[in-house]
Design goal:
Elements (H helix, E strand, L loop, with lengths): L4 H14 L9 H13 L4 H16 L7
Length: about 70
Amino acid sequence: MAVSEARRRANTKWDTANMTVLGCKIRKEKAEKFKAACRDAGTTPNAVFTEAIDNFMDEHAQGAKEG
């Protein structure tokens, strides 16, 4: 089912107010292997990054982590 234009605008508005993109450079070969490993594990790169960030913040930035 296609997302309506109104829903798309609402999603974009929310994302603009609440989300940011973190980026890093990594060799293409390593990135492809990582994506394949995530797929094989039934997860996504974003889920792996989010968990890693949460774990790092728990260990190194007490009180700075938000939900």
